[in-house]
């Protein structure tokens, strides 16, 4: 199911707050290492990495939705073998979001289509 989100569903933080919290990069070094994103990032695809980054930049404020996310994480933690199989499967997934963007701008090439077919 599609879940709709509105701006009121997220904690609003200005740039200075995000920077001082080292959410996606270390304020001192400017590098990803040492940030919350660096600590949490075990994503296997570019799409997953972008999703995690957006969740960190725009954290939910609704307790119910936060608990739902935590429950999904718990399922993955509780099912090691299934998680391992999923991890292996995701290694071959092409960046569908990027392809959709390329299609919308008319910038696709045969390699993109081949990657999509093998995903």
Give the oligomeric state of the chains in this entry, treating copies of one chain as homo and distinct chains as hetero: single chain
Q: What coarse outline follows from CA principal-axis ratios? A: globular
Question: If you consult CATH, what is the topology of the largest domain?
Answer: MutS, DNA mismatch repair protein, Chain A, domain 3
Global Rg? 17 Å
Provide the CATH top-level class of the largest domain: Mainly Alpha
Main pleated-sheet profile? none
Runs with pLDDT <50, length 5+?
none
Number of helices: 7
User: Percent of residues in helical segments?
Assistant: 55-70%
* Structure class: mainly alpha
CATH architecture heading of the largest domain: Orthogonal Bundle
Number of strands: 0
Mean pLDDT, rounded to whole units? 90
Distance between the termini: 22 Å
Q: Please, how many domains?
A: 2
């Amino acid at each position: 199911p599609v879940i709709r989100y509105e701006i009121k569903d997220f904690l609003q933080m200005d740039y200075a707050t995000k920077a001082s919290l080292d959410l996606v990069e270390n304020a001192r070094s400017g590098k990803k290492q040492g940030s919350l994103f660096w600590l949490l990032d075990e994503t296997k695809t570019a799409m997953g990495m972008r999703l995690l980054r957006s969740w960190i930049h725009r954290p939910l404020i609704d307790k119910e939705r936060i608990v739902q996310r935590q429950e999904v994480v718990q399922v993955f933690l509780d099912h090691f073998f299934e998680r391992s199989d999923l991890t292996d499967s995701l290694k071959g997934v092409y960046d569908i979001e990027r392809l959709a963007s390329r299609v919308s701008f008319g910038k696709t090439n045969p390699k993109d289509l081949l990657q999509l077919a093998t995903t």
